[in-house]
Amino acid sequence: MRNVITLTTDFGLQDYYVSAMKAVMLGIAPEVRMVDISHEIPSQDIMAGSWIIRNSAMLFPSGTVHTVVVDPGVGTDRNPVAVKIGDQYFVGPDNGIFSLLTQENDYKAVRLTNEQYWRVEKSSTFHGRDIFAPVAAHLSQGVSLEELGDPLDELVTYRWTVPIADNEGIEGMVIHIDKFGNLVTNITGSLLEEVVGDKDVKIYVGNTILEEIAPTFGAVAEGEPVAYIGSSGVLEIAINKGDAKQMLGVQKGAQISLILQKESPI
Predict the structure, then answer these.
(1) Which among 30, 70, 130, 210 has most CB atoms closer than 10 A?
(2) Could you tell me which CATH class the domain 4-152 is placed in?
(3) What's residue 244's pLDDT?
(4) Do the Cβ atoms of 207 and 220 come closer than 8 Å?
């Protein structure tokens, strides 16, 4: 038995969608424990959903089933899938939502074709309730991946732009903005260590220039911008007790430049 199911969606909590999924799950697996990872993924933002589960899913107990529904292509020919990565299971659309996990880990996947594990009444616009919720519940009750459908060798995969590094510095981009307005970049801590190390650097973001990478928010005065390595292991830009997105006027996709400072000749 796998007794934990998580839910990650872009549904929000205003409507009945999340509760309908949970109702279906409880009808199949009444003893299961449910954990909401997030229901505030920006609408139809597949890569934002991928980022959220990449940083949370693998922390759960062995055998956890993760239901992930950010599904702008619902009802089209995109595949519904179940995936096993390590000791974790995932159920959702094959639209790139699992990209950040599958590019870092080996996986086994099936296309969900066995309608025995779906709701009998199926809508063309709510596969979260009618396919993914019941499949996740059946998985939690010990149904094997192989029983759910046909093997799938390769999932749809999206990749964020890779940062460019040379002896001048690093060019990266903002890939995610969290609830606090912190700007999350695609520049990893390991790349920073390799390229910057203990050299002096200037960090250009929007119209702002920062001159150091600090250990945490409180290393600067309240209201001041700060660059640091965040909990997901990448460079982030924040405002101490403020909103960097709003105060710096920076959106997702914005360029981040780290320029190494050359020593002045004597």
Answers:
(1) 70
(2) alpha beta
(3) 95
(4) no
Helix (H) or strand (E) segment spanning residue 256: strand 255-260
CA–CA separation, 266 vs 262, rounded Å? 12
pLDDT in tens, 218-255: 899 999 999 999 999 999 999 999 999 999 999 999 99
User: Are 34 and 43 spatial neighbours (Cβ–Cβ below 8 Å)?
Assistant: no
pLDDT at 266 over 70: no
In b/e form, how buried is each residue of 217-236, taking b as 16+ CB within 10 angstroms? beebeeeebbbbbbeeebbb
CA-nearest of 239, 219, 220, 236 to 228 is 236
Residue 27, Cβ neighbours under 10 Å: how many? 12
> Of all helices (H) and strands (E), which one includes residue 196?
none
With a CB cutoff of 8 Å and minimum separation 6, the contacts of 137 are: 5, 24, 25, 26, 27, 28, 29, 32
Of 10, 13, 57, the residue nearest 35 (C-alpha) = 57
Give the 3-state secondary structure of residue 174: strand
End-to-end CA distance of the chain: 70
Residues present in the chain in total:
266
Report the C-alpha gap between 148 and 225 in whole angstroms. 49
Q: Which overall architecture, per CATH, does domain 164-260 show? A: Beta Barrel (2.40)
Amino acid at 188: T
* pLDDT tens-digit map of 134-143: 999 999 999 9
Give how far Cα 254 sits from Cα of 1, 9, 99, Å.
Answer: 45, 25, 21
Q: Which amino acid is at 263?
A: E
Give me the residue spans of the domains in the chain.
4-152, 164-260
The answer to whether 194 touches 239, Cβ cutoff 8 Å, is no
